[in-house]
TrEMBL record:
Superkingdom of source: Eukaryota
Occurrences of domain C17orf113 probable zinc finger (ranges): 5-63
UniProt name for this protein: C17orf113 probable zinc finger domain-containing protein
InterPro entries xref list: RNaseH-like_sf, Znf_C17orf113
Length: 693
């Protein structure tokens, strides 16, 4: 029994028991008495483990451990610098900074010379160091060390998930990026870059799967640990019989395939624009206005001068990108911000294009549509940002989705709240002020006379005499637009599409917090049964531990966490919640903890891969398009997985390179000495005496 409670210590002198954590943190309870606790009932141990004092003691112990670790890191850093000498340590930092900031290997030479000039006599850059080969050698060392540390952490994790995606770089080379998510020793869920492979020949599912399999085998990563696979939903990835996911499931039974949530949301918004004539016209007008200024530097300067003359905030027009998730929302926001300036600009322009743009801008319907669509897409953009968060867990997707869709319904459609039905749309203050201003002025806005027109499904003629907020609340077009968007999003996120993954919803902190006291006994039993059957062989005694050890405590913990989150106006996220609860789960309900780990490592979105591709394009710029795949892979590893160089907002006693010096520098220098630099043939030592003849 005591194996479930690792904090219990037996006092041999008195044959009693003590809580080591509470005693160390000086908490006052029955398990910290000088002579210990005489009673050792399972119920008493469970009650103590769930108590606030014990949880507080656990957090305090964790904080104290972190402090000790920081002191240890500082000591290791000082020792590494003392052993390495100032020259090698500073040059390795110089190389790391160069590659971390997406600079070229050649730039390392210039940075080393600059460092020597700034550092004076303590650093003298000798010939062998002041070269591109030296920079390449340091890159090799840094990449190897970071790769080894990540690989060891992944190998220790009980469960992992895989995210892959294809991309074409600046030189039209087809690459495959692989990311692995895992849980580290501190309970953090990390989604890390592993490998960039060039796709040679056909990019079919078999070729992609073979690349993934070989990369994992080369790293010594057990593929049987894979529980999740995330992709952009392309047929080559998720084809029912021959996709990468299907091939992976044959190799690793039990793998669940997920379609990136951010990608599905972007497709929903794209579908809305495809099916609506007014939105297509708005979309085309944004591109038309951008193109009008793009072709002429003189026009751009005139627009800038007009903004200055009108004392308007200076903005630049944004280029619409069909492949970028937030592009359309940002472009419409910028059109709204520039609307008065654009009206004034195109009023003075001549030519058919300028006149067509001015005529469109003068239509009050288009102005109001721009304001309303800005707020509609602002909700979807906020949702997209949530889906792209590195802290997003599988069970968080539905929580965010339902919250934002309810907000859309309240703002732009007739809706129900607490049983009260047919409540009108709740337009924002900005929209109501715009409508009131147009009605009072008879369509006069920023010195321009706007005109009204019948649009969409509106019936009958309209005039400024009947214009107002009530008219636009009743406009079928606006409510239909929002209703269609909500329907398209729900169509892309049906619960049945998740398949078995939908059963993990019982682990959502939001769901747990909403369980009533009379519902706890039956909560989640069917889902637990289904999940237990799916993971037979990996998880045992799941139902028993769920009923007797987990569900009551999880519900209580979720209710408390929900209350605290609401007080701080913060969301209740799964990864943060379970990180705090992992201590008692690992000790008291290990099989339930395994199930939770499986849920936590699965990635609901592939945004991390997209960020990696952005870094790839920054590294392989137009000036560095000759980088081979091996060097590009190493540079991406240092950039994406290397520790951050923390300069701003850092305490004076914590140097910018603290984490690098402690975790990477000693091992990188060890690699440098053993593999790259030879004392007999470099400035590390005197050259051997050579005998002629």
């Amino acid at each position: 029994m005591l194996q479930r409670y690792p904090w219990v210590v037996r006092l041999d002198a008195t044959c009693t028991y003590r809580c080591s954590i509470c005693f160390e943190q000086k908490k006052n309870n029955v398990f910290t008495k000088p002579d210990g606790a005489h009673v050792l009932l399972n119920s008493e141990l469970q009650r103590h483990q769930a108590s606030e004092k014990h949880k507080t003691a656990e957090l305090e112990q964790e904080a104290a451990t972190k402090s000790v670790i920081q002191q240890s890191l500082a000591a290791m850093s000082a020792k590494a610098q003392a052993e390495a000498g100032p020259l090698e340590a500073k040059l390795m930092r110089c190389a790391f900074t160069t590659f971390k900031n997406n600079q070229s290997v050649s730039t390392y030479v210039d940075n080393a010379v600059l460092m020597a000039a700034c550092d004076g006599a303590s650093v003298k850059v000798a010939g062998p160091y002041q070269s591109r080969p030296a920079g390449m050698e340091m890159l090799d060392c840094l990449s190897e060390v970071i790769d080894e540390k990540e690989r060891e952490a992944i190998q220790k994790s009980d469960f992992i998930a895989l995210t892959i995606d294809e991309s074409t770089d600046r030189t039209i080379k087809h690459n495959l990026a692989m990311y692995v998510s895992y849980i580290d020793d501190n309970g953090n869920v990390l989604n890390r870059y592993r490998k960039l492979e060039e796709i040679k020949g056909s990019a079919n599912a078999k070729a992609l799967f073979d690349l993934v399999k070989k990369a994992l085998e080369d790293d010594g990563i057990d593929m049987k640990k894979i529980v999740g696979f995330t992709s952009d939903g392309a047929s080559v990835m998720v084809g029912e019989h021959k996709g990468v996911a299907a091939l992976l499931k044959k190799e690793c039974p039990g793998v669940l395939s997920l379609h990136c949530a951010a990608h599905k949301l972007a497709l929903s918004c794209a579908d809305l624009f495809k099916g609506d004539e007014e939105l297509l016209l708005l979309d085309g007008m944004i591109s038309k206005i951008y193109g009008y200024f793009k072709v002429s530097p003189l026009r751009r300067e005139d627009l800038r001068s007009l903004q200055e003359l009108l004392k308007a905030k200076e903005y630049k027009l944004l280029k619409p990108h069909a492949v970028r998730w937030l592009s359309r929302a940002r472009c419409i926001r910028r059109l709204k911000e520039l609307y008065p300036v654009l009206l004034e600009y195109f009023k003075q322009e001549t030519g058919p294009n300028a006149e067509a743009i001015y005529s469109w801008l003068k239509n009050a319907h288009n102005l109001i549509l721009t304001y309303i669509l800005d707020e509609i897409l602002d909700v979807t953009a906020r949702l997209s940002c949530c889906f792209q968060s590195s802290d997003l867990a599988l069970v968080d997707v539905n929580t965010w989705l339902e919250g934002e869709l309810k907000l859309l319904e309240m703002k732009f459609t007739y809706h129900k709240i607490s049983g009260k039905g047919n409540l009108p749309p709740e337009f924002s203050k900005a929209i109501n002020e715009l409508l009131a201003s147009l009605k009072e002025s008879g369509g006069r806005w920023h010195g321009h006379d706007l005109h009204l027109s019948v649009q969409g499904t509106d019936e009958g003629a309209v005039s400024w005499a009947t214009f107002g907020a009530e008219l636009f609340r009743k406009k079928k077009y606006i409510s239909t637009l929002c209703t269609d968007l909500i329907a398209l999003i729900r169509e892309r996120f049906p619960k049945e599409a998740l398949g078995l993954a939908a059963h993990f919803r019982i682990l959502s902190p939001e769901e747990l917090a909403g369980v009533g006291d009379d519902e706890i006994e039956e909560y989640g039993l069917e889902d637990i049964k289904t999940l237990g059957e799916w993971y037979t062989g990996r998880i045992g005694h799941l139902r028993e531990q769920w009923i007797t050890r987990a569900v009551h405590k999880l519900v209580q913990a979720a209710k408390k966490a929900k209350k605290k989150a609401e007080e701080k106006d913060l969301p209740l996220l799964a990864r943060e919640f379970y990180k705090k609860e992992r201590g008692w789960l690992k000790a008291g309900a290990p099989e339930v903890w395994k199930l939770i780990q499986i849920m936590l490592v699965m990635q609901p979105a592939s945004a991390e891969v997209e960020r990696g591709f952005s870094a790839m394009n920054d590294i392989k710029s137009s000036e560095r398009n000759l980088l081979d795949i091996s060097t590009l892979d190493k540079l991406m590893r240092v950039r994406l997985c290397g520790p951050e160089i923390r300069i701003q907002h850092q305490a004076a006693d914590r140097p910018p390179y603290e984490e690098f010096d402690a975790c990477i520098l000693p091992l990188a220098l060890k690699h440098w000495h053993s593999k790259k630099r030879c004392p007999e043939r470099s400035c590390h030592g005197p050259r051997p005496k050579r005998v002629k003849g």
